[in-house]
Design goal:
Helix content is 37%, strand content 12%. By secondary structure, it is of the alpha/beta class. Helix 3 links the parallel strand 2 and strand 3.
């Protein structure tokens, strides 16, 4: 995974440290639309939605000035449904280079031209959902031809050499034995990969949650193999501590201690603050402090370990070290150090 240049790395660290102390969010997830091209079996979004109340591109400047996160996740629904997505990104990005912007998408609508346009607008990392490393992905997402589209588009975008594409495989009961096969696919396409955990809270369907001894045994074996190949495969960007916590989440059936609303939060398509995408307590932009007092301080939900949480559910020291290892460059002024793992 490409390292962030030194100057921007230091800015991210400085703002992250300030926000940690000041109880401001490190990461903000902007759900720029509720509409989606897919009807994924593990998700509560899907299909067309009313987009008339969506924030306009210029509105995002006000949210950035107030919340000042060092990392922003742009997601949906399917963010590529917005024709003005590049303008949204440009209004999130400041002249300093902050925040670090991740675009989370199915890539169902991605083209090589749009990939390059979004890079120029300010996207630093493209997160591409991949449930299966073959055409079973189409069935799981209810989108015929999606895998073939990825198989064509991802290698062509990766060939530009920016090293900024990361597959994300959400681990479920039906793909737990495909964890390393997904890594093989990432390697074949010349991109990176990370992993997240399915939460039944989103859909109420516990059939996709790992809850049998056999499924948990397969998970342990897949993670052990993943760790064995890590040194020879630096395209695996999920930190060992994240994978270990993900294993515990499935084995114990939950993950207490969530800091949603404090370390991270969601801005909905119509501009409301929510602690996360599965907690529908809505606040106005200026009420993040009230969200922390009313929700975060009393939150006992342990029902998810999604990617945005798993990367922030750590001490600041560990969070800093792991991000220096994987993403941030502190060794060379031009930011061209070795890729992080």
């Amino acid at each position: 995974m490409r390292k962030v240049p030194l100057r921007e790395s230091l800015q991210i660290i400085a703002r992250g440290a300030h926000n940690w102390i000041a109880e401001r969010p490190i990461v903000v997830s902007f759900e720029v639309t509720d509409a989606c091209t897919c009807y994924c079996r593990h998700c509560d979004h899907g299909g067309p939605r009313d987009e008339s109340r969506n924030l306009k591109p210029a509105d995002y400047r006000r949210y950035m000035e107030t919340l000042r996160p060092c990392v922003v996740q742009v997601s949906g629904g399917e963010p590529l449904l917005r024709d003005d997505l590049a303008d949204v990104v440009r209004n999130i990005k400041s002249r300093s280079g902050l925040p670090y912007i991740l675009l989370v998408s199915s890539w169902s609508l991605m083209t090589e031209e749009r990939y390059l346009e979004l890079r120029r607008a300010g996207v630093d990392q493209f997160s591409v959902s991949l449930d299966f490393p073959d055409a079973r992905h189409d069935e799981f997402r209810c989108y015929p031809g999606l895998y073939a589209h990825l198989n064509d588009t991802i290698p062509r975008c990766a060939a530009h050499g920016y090293d900024d594409i990361v597959l994300n495989t959400c681990i479920t009961a039906v793909n737990v034995d495909e964890i390393n096969a997904a890594a093989d696919q990432a390697k074949a396409w010349g991109v990176n990969i990370c992993y997240s955990a399915y939460s039944p809270r989103r859909t109420g369907n516990r059939a996709y949650f790992l809850n049998t001894p056999e499924q948990l045994r397969v998970l342990r074996e897949q993670f052990e193999r993943l760790e064995q190949r890590r040194n020879g495969g630096r395209f695996i960007v999920s930190a060992p501590s994240t994978l270990e916590a993900t294993r515990r989440y499935f084995e114990t059936g939950g993950a207490p201690g969530c800091k949603a609303g404090l370390r991270f939060l969601v801005v909905t398509a119509d501009g409301k603050l929510q602690p996360c995408s599965m907690q529908f307590h809505r606040y106005e932009l200026h009420e993040q402090g009230r969200m922390v007092e009313e929700f975060t301080r009393h939150n006992r939900c342990d029902e998810c370990y999604v990617a945005i949480r798993s990367n922030l559910d750590k001490s600041f020291r560990r969070l800093l070290w792991e991000n220096v290892t994987r993403y941030l460059s502190l060794g060379r002024a031009n930011g061209q150090g070795a890729n992080g793992c």
